[in-house]
Amino acid sequence: MDIIIYGIINSVSLALMAVGFTLVYGVSRLPNFAHGALYVLTGYLTWLLMYRLGLNYFLAALFALALTGLIGAAMYQLVLIRVRGMPISEIIASYAIGLAILEGLRWGGLKGGTFRLPPFIEGSVLIFGVSVDFQRIFVVVLGSALMGGLWLFVNNTKLGLALKGMAQDERAALTLGIDSDRMAVVATAIGSMLAGAAAIILLPLGSIVVESGYHVLIMAVAVCIVGGLGSWTGAVFAAFIIGFAQIITVVFLGAHFQVVVALLAIVVTLVSRPSGLFGRQKELEERV
Amino acid sequence: MFGSKGDRRKERLDRGIKVRSDGVYAISSWREITYLIAPRLLFILGLALAPLALGAAPYWQRVISIICVYALLAIGFDFLANYVGLVSLGGGFYVGVGAYVSALLNTHYGIPPLLCVPLAMILGAVICTILFLPCLPLRGVYFAIVSLMYPLLAARIIEALDIFGGTDGILGVDGFPNIWLEQYILILSVIVIVFALRRLVEEDVGLVFRGVKDNDQAVKASGINITVYKALGVFIASSLGCLGGAWLTHMYMWAGLSQFALDFSIIPIAATVVGGGGTIVGPVIGCLILVPVSELLRDFGSLRIAVYSIILTAFIVFKSEGIMPYAARKYEQFERWVEI
Fold this sequence. Notes:
Chain A has helices at about 1-30, 35-50, 55-80, 85-105, 135-155, 160-170, 170-175, 180-200, 210-225, 230-250, 260-270, 285, and strands at about 125, 130-135.
């Protein structure tokens, strides 16, 4: 029972980490390697707004999210747009921005367990005889709500449909009057905010540390690759596969192997089925 | 707006001496010969005299060795990215493998360091190539992501299984017998490798490498096995990384998990972008600039990674050609404004 409950929690967390990354990649074919940095940054901003400016938790989180969205948009508009279409430079530039944010934060004093966000509600309940704290329930509920909301947004609003159009065929979208550069900015902003939302939901489970930026990036990449880059259904499925695989490894082998599982999953997937479980991209053209 | 009176554009023309020294006339006079040799000689002598010039400051002598180690990695990255088309973000993996192989050879079999290093270079490169073999069909983003995972994976596995000394690393590795020997062999190898690789990419095999990068389907259609060439490219690049790693091990008399660290992946990339990709010499120049900067920033801890990330981003956005192509253009061409 432990395995199932914590497996679900872990899987939803992974899906939360990955959803922003896969959105950005799906829409603008930009592997946003600054994803993990934006995650940590939102957590830190929320902390700053709460404890330095004395805002209440909800407002602080909201402001931090808005700021992260702006930072993401600015990052795309000022830097990444100039290297669009050059995969090598895209990776290097976004990775460099991420590194600059993370290592800058580390230098600015973000280390150790002193930076913590409080859980939304303290306490825990028993579910089928397993003790689960409220925050983890929030993770599952809010995570599912967020992904459901995103699905509705993409399929039912004009902006969402424009993003979907971009993701499916950029040229066709252009002929229909969708401004691809603007959409890419919007997608990066939304992707950054999703990274931020994941941070606000997940960070109360631990403390805000720089290392989690790298961890989140690796996990997001792992989930997206196993699921197929740019495929949202694939990402959710992959999150569940990796999530359960991790929990099972932790139970039977030890916590050290948790990351190894994700990395091995990537290598195995890429080698055996490069387009991922649900990848829709043409294998020949893209990678082989 | 198009072609109105008074519009000017910049015209670039090859200098006469450049055109002459391209052909057989290169040997027609001392002037042409000097024109060809001067930049190369400047590079060789500059590197070779640096340890002597800094003889009074042992700390900065050590920095020169570190520059050379990073330069080896950066040359490998440049070669792999711009001639074979494989962007490897995991330079740390080559360094780590080289370091561990050399340390194990030294501590377990008692092989002296000067023999260990070449052995580790070859053995390490073989190990890296075999491990990368399954990923070779991948291209672009996919190869970049997988190669980024390798050093992380290696460090985690060593940590989790507690092999090769676990988190403590391998202690008690022998150092080099003599500091001058240590420096000059390394500097000499950097110089030789630079010129050898520049030669290699101009040969037939280099042509095939560039074919693999630009249009691998065409290379396949010519009946050439691209996997063999990609493996060869990885072998060359990883042998450079392993050489650097092995050298570091004996310099610090220690091999550990930090040799899989991020620094070894990011500085060579930054150096390549700053120095100019696709030139082989450019990365060395990039290292000559970036590594001392990072040494000066050592007191600020992790700020230095942030600093060269910013330098890197700035170069990608504003000066994507890099220093070396820029300098070469100034050296070989003159510019003038002409009326349209």
